[in-house]
Design goal:
The protein is an alpha/beta fold. About 25% of the residues lie in helices and about 30% in strands.
Length: about 300
């Protein structure tokens, strides 16, 4: 098969599109012909060696965690999946024409959802849902989602509204972000880089943070005693000053029911995960370079 192979840590130029041995499904696994993979920050952080202490690459190796495609071979002991099923997953080594996935980490693409589009969803939608869930927010409570126009943020906003919460979208003051935030379903938009706007915030029941840094240090002060500050990007450095606030670091874990629920919301137009570019798998270097420059849309690699 053709795959995007990494032989050493470095910039996007180390991503080489070349021949690589076909993977073989073992017990409880299926072989998927990849239709598309999506580019996530964890991908280029791995490529650059920023995660080698806890998520290293073995050279030559593959990267990628999101995938959608069609089952082409079944390993022993597999139940619930058949050859020809359209599936998507949070998996390993997805920048390739073929990918082996454990069925515990696999879901069927909901009918009516485009297979290529499905590749954009697993990591960001599950992470956003689990981030919001970690706040424990209830009907009638107020949560601020920081980085609300990002894909994890959008997913958290949607989940909060499904729970009946009042949602404040926290974004940068740039006009583009403020305007875009009005489309994600939040009840109010607040500029997180405007100290006056932050000072004027009423006390919050919870914060769901996808940004971190100095913004986190400012916002934890706005959480009510007994409230929750949940983050996917590390904890506020001043968290010790607020012992009455529960601080939770969220690590995304695959959950089939959550992914199916979020994907159905995308299919039905209730949640929008924008796709900014679709590039051939052979242009993974260009795709990662573009992703590292930032932006709100997902970049897909089409196999």
């Amino acid at each position: 098969m053709k795959a995007v192979v990494v032989h050493q840590y470095g910039g996007p130029e180390v991503l080489k599109f070349e021949e690589y041995p076909d993977p073989v499904p073992g017990p409880g696994e299926v072989l998927v012909r990849v239709a598309a993979a999506s580019v996530n920050p964890i991908d280029y952080k791995r490529r650059a060696g920023l995660t080698k202490d806890f998520y290293p690459l073995k050279f030559p190796g593959l990267i990628g965690v999101d995938m959608a495609g069609t089952v082409v071979k079944i390993g022993s002991g597999v139940e619930g999946f058949s050859v020809g099923d359209q599936v998507f997953a949070m998996a390993d080594d997805t920048y390739a024409e073929l990918c082996v996935v454990k069925t515990a980490f696999l879901a069927k693409v909901p009918k009516g959802l485009d297979l290529i589009q499905a590749a954009a969803l697993p990591l960001v939608t599950v992470t956003g849902n689990q981030l919001l869930a970690a706040t424990g927010i209830k009907v009638g409570q107020t949560v601020m989602v920081v980085g609300a126009v990002g894909n994890v943020g959008r997913s958290a906003v949607f989940t909060a509204k499904e729970r009946g919460a009042t949602v404040i979208a926290g974004v940068l003051k740039r006009q583009m972000h403020m305007d875009e935030a009005k489309t994600v379903g939040a009840d109010l938009v607040v500029a997180t880089d405007d100290d006056t706007a932050i000072a004027n915030l009423s006390p919050l029941d919870a914060v769901a943070d996808t940004v971190g840094g100095r913004t986190a240090e400012k916002l934890i002060a706005k959480v009510k005693p007994g409230g929750v500050y949940a983050s996917v990007v590390g904890l506020p450095q001043n968290a010790a000053k607020y012992p009455s606030v529960k601080v939770v670091h969220v690590f995304s874990k695959f959950d089939r029911k959550t992914l199916e629920f979020m994907a159905e919301a995308v299919r039905d137009g209730k949640l929008v995960i924008p796709i900014s570019q679709k590039l051939p798998l052979s242009e993974a270097a260009e795709a990662q370079a573009a992703a590292e420059k930032g932006g709100t849309g997902k970049i897909l690699l089409v196999a």
